[in-house]
Request: fold
Amino acid sequence: MDLFALYDGKYYIFSRDGKKKFIRGLGVIDTKRFMDKNEGEKINILGQDFIVLKPNIQDILSAMERKEQIVHFKDIGTIIYLSGIHAYSRVVEIGAGSGFLTLSLIYYSYPGTVYSYDISENVIKNLSEIINDWKLGGNWVGKVRDGREGIDEKNVDSIIVDIPDPWNVVSSAYESLRVNGTFIAYVPNITQVVLLKEKLLKENFKNIDVGEIIERKWVVGERESRPENTGIMHTSFIVSARKISD
Amino acid sequence: MDLFALYDGKYYIFSRDGKKKFIRGLGVIDTKRFMDKNEGEKINILGQDFIVLKPNIQDILSAMERKEQIVHFKDIGTIIYLSGIHAYSRVVEIGAGSGFLTLSLIYYSYPGTVYSYDISENVIKNLSEIINDWKLGGNWVGKVRDGREGIDEKNVDSIIVDIPDPWNVVSSAYESLRVNGTFIAYVPNITQVVLLKEKLLKENFKNIDVGEIIERKWVVGERESRPENTGIMHTSFIVSARKISD
Amino acid sequence: MDLFALYDGKYYIFSRDGKKKFIRGLGVIDTKRFMDKNEGEKINILGQDFIVLKPNIQDILSAMERKEQIVHFKDIGTIIYLSGIHAYSRVVEIGAGSGFLTLSLIYYSYPGTVYSYDISENVIKNLSEIINDWKLGGNWVGKVRDGREGIDEKNVDSIIVDIPDPWNVVSSAYESLRVNGTFIAYVPNITQVVLLKEKLLKENFKNIDVGEIIERKWVVGERESRPENTGIMHTSFIVSARKISD
Amino acid sequence: MDLFALYDGKYYIFSRDGKKKFIRGLGVIDTKRFMDKNEGEKINILGQDFIVLKPNIQDILSAMERKEQIVHFKDIGTIIYLSGIHAYSRVVEIGAGSGFLTLSLIYYSYPGTVYSYDISENVIKNLSEIINDWKLGGNWVGKVRDGREGIDEKNVDSIIVDIPDPWNVVSSAYESLRVNGTFIAYVPNITQVVLLKEKLLKENFKNIDVGEIIERKWVVGERESRPENTGIMHTSFIVSARKISD
Reply:
């Protein structure tokens, strides 16, 4: 990963490929200007100072266009933890949606490989552009395919599912996973969780676990310290399970 | 990482180095028996079947001795996410304590490097034995040193702090971090958080953020679906901050 | 209510009727001794000091025998608030169980009337003894009856339900309530809530509302201030609804 | 209480005193029209149907003008429960603010008495108008007075405090309470709670308890059942304490 960002309180992420390009919030930028800049150096664009930085996953996601249905920041760490994904992991994602999770999977499995299935050509095309331009890593394979109809990859470390009917990929997920591989689903409704768990039990998945993460942000000062007054109360339940035996 | 485990519902982790060794819960094991076993194969020990597996971070932590004051499972994902740690990261840990976080940092930064400072010789010695035997990775450096008196490493990606007076490492952490590097502290009391935030502001840290994670586990069945009745209500606040400019 | 208690850190509640009686935790007590004592006065029993007090609902519940399945303290205030019960209310309770809610209903509707239906003769008998001895109020009517088979009272202000199949009292509750009267159910599983809501909608109930209360207790001190580490994560969902038109 | 409301999905509360009056949301209403209407009867105003109802505390609060800093609905039940307030209680309120709590105290202590202290003449005047017009009860005494300078009433059952420096009424509250009387404060910041608790300990209050209520509202349907996505994460901590001995 050759990650690069400009920072002025917000993070602007793009590759230094020497081309002119349009960056949301900055306008058209000639990336030649930044070729030889080091981390920490300042750059002036139209009178404003930016710092050259190497962004991390939090910054990368903050630079993405926010759509309604995203995998929420508060859940990404837990999904990564439960999935067991780390360097060199081979991961299959069913339902790429907003791409928030896709980018996270690439970041954590690097230099491994992420295979993203989505039925929308548009979703895969947009993700492809971002991943290429932001130099997130070469080992991403986007597939305009319905993951419920089968998964090509075998012996994968983890399968991450974010579709409305996750129970419909349980069988093919089982076939695709390695022993001790993880199945993770991100599921908004408890009624969906009930159906999913039933199917996971039937297909011989083990260690099935259901949880949700409530994050409380705090305002902290010497005189005023309290949780923030309003916030996210619910996003999705996180369901995890293991394939133990063949 | 050449991770190896036996599984019978619980995970038993050790290296296949051909030596006899004592494994808690299994007794004395001659590891020669497992040298050529593949994932998914069964092994019989004194009449009981075990499956050979490659464990992930969740399994690794489950196999550790539980002491009272641990970094809780529910918080590890969030700490990893906020720290930005992934493959090749260089990480400094101040206060290794139970080792739960140390092992997680090694797992996620692999094949990077983790430097752990702890004032207890015993803590570092025990960790060293586990890390070596479990083949968690070669790039761990344990130091019987007081991190509050200075950090040798420079230009590190992240510094993770789990000591009672985190404000006392803020200055040396700032010096040690690279631009856009992350400072993360795990802090049980809000009164400590107030003191820490004051110091972070004074030392020019930016994007200071305080949160806590409440995890709700669910019991799920067709007829009975509800959150678990009792559980962990609080462990620690997670404080994160960035060094932006030199 | 002629409430009376002795206090030594715990509350011991009984009536001063001049009789000798056995009080759990105190042994046999001759209540003549307390006939003319005023609030705040001390009394010595076998070398230990007790203070004479007028207990409130929290103290009353603290003096009850704790059984497994109780309406939890944290939920009582919310149930009372949503029910609209206050002085002179006429209340029907279906399922008296541990009696925690029964005593609360008597306390808040006083000098109104509470009608408690329970299929267990034992439950009604035990409650009757406590209510009489503790002088909680004369307007309590216990019925060894199955509330699902019909409610005698009409034009009542509120009906409180704590049975495993609350949907089976919805029709008779509707008939029994006054206009703008409240239906409240205490329901452990979300799967039960789904069935109950369906039935409430069908029977023309309005303003159907489902919530749960998470209470976080805090440890507070100058140096250590934090939420308690473990606690109650879930008891029951509280479902409320209104009868609006006849 | 001669409570009266019109209902069309919202509650409009006013007294049927035979006068014409302006009702927010309805315009000018001649209350003579409603003198002889019974609960459940319909009334037509400018082509729209309204039902005549007797409102409860929830409806009463829903009809009040919402200002920013209110005692939140989710907390009222818990405050009432911890205070021990019920029929005939004598209650002192220090800081009437939005009036949400004042009206609740009147409702639950009815036919007792509530004494409200507030330094703002405007607050007391507005409350007086609402309480009189809505016929909430005759035993309310509003005082344009600083409760921190002393409380006239003695032997009261409960003192409820909602001001920025609750520690400054602790001494006079102790003098004013009866034995086993309750002190309740509604406190936004944990830093204020620390100061308050210190003062309560110093003034000999017992059974000091600090908690916060997190309410999760649920969306419930056969296919979609989940907690609401956003909501109130924090309002105030509720601090309760007892005066045990003189």
Remarks:
- Chain A has a mean pLDDT of 93.
- Chain A touches chain C at residues 190-191, 194 (CB under 8 Å).
- Residues 208 and 241 of chain A are 4 Å apart (CA to CA).
